[in-house]
Design a protein that fits this description.
There is one protein chain. The chain is of the alpha/beta class. The protein has two domains: 3-164 and 370-390, Rossmann fold (3-Layer(aba) Sandwich); 167-197 and 242-367 and 399-422, Dihydrodipicolinate Reductase, domain 2, CATH 3.30.360. Helices cover 29% and strands 18% of the residues. It contains 13 helices and 17 strands. It has helices at residues 3-15, 47-56, 77-83, 93-100, 116-125, 140-153, 167-177, 215-219, 246-255, 257-263, 371-381, 389-405, 426-429; strands at 24-25, 38-42, 60-65, 88-90, 106-109, 129-133, 157-160, 184-190, 270-274, 287-294, 303-310, 332-337, 341-345, 351-353, 383-384, 413-416, 421-422. It has a nine-stranded mixed sheet with strand order 14-13-12-8-11-10-9-16-17. A six-stranded parallel sheet has the order 4-3-2-5-6-7, with helices on both faces. α5 packs parallel to α6.
Length: 440
């Protein structure tokens, strides 16, 4: 028996005690004879600090990487060195993967959106499990590529939409699937994002690059541009086309998730945009998007319409069972059914209206899971986690269709998912796949 097989069998046996349900079985491969799952964090500041520490509850951190070495953000390179003194630190993820591919079981990827796909793909090609922050990728083509690569690599994958494991959205799915509110007629999703600048022009000039930041590595696959202090790094990159996916990309993989999940939706057939005229380099200050999906057994009619709103825009409760005087949460989802309406604030438990017909004490509630533990259990058990790329890849494609719609002046964009193209807009097709910078 090979060491590789011995490790796989050991990890599967160890996983039995974790009792974390997974979505679908897969033939995953373990990587070394050690009894402890070993991981590395790519991007360890801000959300990356949360991710690598979440994985560290279940695994040993043996390496970490960040292009910023000063560590002024929450967590960061310096804090990683103090927290895991025996781990090796890097500024270039490629050097980390080259040095530790045979020592690692998996990595967390918590960089700006434009670097998610290249890092994640490089890890899977080395047989490593991957936990990648949402949105899984910046472009639709990247999402399809990672979905296909994960199926080929047969490793444990998980997207960082933590609420997929949370009690709130799991309970929404249970309520809808149980038929409690009848079949769903319409769906609404929304967010108070952006909380960073959008709808702006690129500032002129440049600033000195801090000694602690490798600007070329931060840019990665994105086109070269001069460094400007407090414009892109460490947080405001989300509003720029080259680096992020705007408000929708930030929150859509969270809030649209329970709609796609509960209703078992396939790819949309069309998406339309309402908002300010597209800017050359940044996402709009606000937007309202309308998606059309083929109906399913959980919906009325042959089509399901879902709206997305952000930048201070909220959906109307007209036609729902929610009273007009109810204040909608800043971030939430509303599923309007034949007999009732499910309203769920992001990261909270759902309510069902009318309240007198559906008191909270009578609603089904599903316990939450440790999203990081589910991923590590996938490594141990040889099964795909609940938000593995076979699910989160297509979900990301759906989200990113709206991102593209906000960048072009068109009426409804018609989507051909099988051929990965819009059938009525070459301008939109130009954003399905975008070229990487020379050398990347």
């Amino acid at each position: 028996m090979s060491l590789r097989t011995s490790r796989r069998d050991f990890l599967k046996t160890s996983a039995a005690g974790l009792a974390l349900p997974l979505a679908a079985p897969s033939l995953l491969s373990a990587r070394s004879p050690n009894e402890v799952v070993r991981v590395a964090g790519i991007g360890v500041g801000g959300k990356g600090w949360t991710d690598v520490n979440g994985a560290a509850k279940h695994a040993e951190v043996i390496a970490y990487c960040d292009v910023e070495t000063k560590g002024t953000r929450r967590g960061g390179f310096g804090n990683a060195a103090k927290t895991w003194p025996d781990a090796k630190g890097y500024t270039d993820y490629r050097k980390l993967l080259d040095a530790h591919a045979k020592d690692l079981d998996g990595i967390t990827v918590s960089t700006p959106d434009h670097m998610h796909a290249p890092i994640t793909l490089a890890a899977m090609e080395r047989g490593l499990a991957v936990y990648t922050q949402k949105p899984l990728t910046r472009t639709i083509h990247e999402a399809r590529t990672l979905t296909q690569a994960a199926a080929k690599a047969k490793v444990s994958t998980q997207m960082g939409n933590q609420n997929h494991s949370g009690s709130g959205y799991r309970s929404v799915v249970e309520i809808v699937r149980s038929g409690l509110v009848g079949k769903i007629k319409t769906a609404h999703t929304w967010s108070n994002r952006p909380i960073w600048p959008q709808g702006i022009e690129r500032p002129a000039g440049s600033d000195p690059v801090p000694e602690s930041l490798d600007w070329d590595l931060w840019l990665g696959v994105a086109n070269d541009r001069p460094y400007k202090a407090n414009v892109y790094a460490p947080f405001k990159w989300r509003g720029w086309y080259d680096f992020g996916a705007g408000a929708l990309g930030d929150m859509g993989c969270h809030i649209i998730d329970p709609v796609v999940w509960a209703l078992e939706l396939g790819p949309p057939t069309g998406v339309s945009y309402e908002g300010p005229e597209p800017m050359p380099e940044t996402f709009p200050e606000w937007e309202v998007l309308t998606y059309r999906f083929p109906g399913t057994e959980h919906t009325t009619g042959d089509e399901l319409v879902m709206t997305w709103s952000d930048g201070g825009k909220l959906p109307s409760t007209e036609g729902s069972h929610v009273p007009a005087d109810v204040k909608l949460p800043a971030n939430g989802v509303m599923l309007v059914g034949e007999k009732g309406t499910v309203l769920c604030q992001h990261v909270r438990s759902p309510q069902v209206y009318p309240l007198e017909k559906f008191p909270e004490k009578d609603l089904p509630k599903v316990d939450g899971l440790d999203h990081y533990g589910v991923w590590i259990n996938g490594i141990r058990a040889g099964e795909e986690p609940n938000s593995g790329f076979s699910y989160s890849g297509p979900l990301t494609e759906t989200v990113l269709l709206g991102v593209v719609a906000s960048r072009v002046e068109a009426d409804e964009l018609l989507w051909d998912a099988e051929n990965l193209r819009f059938t009525n807009s070459e301008a939109a097709n130009a954003f399905v796949k975008e070229e990487y910078r020379t050398g990347w």
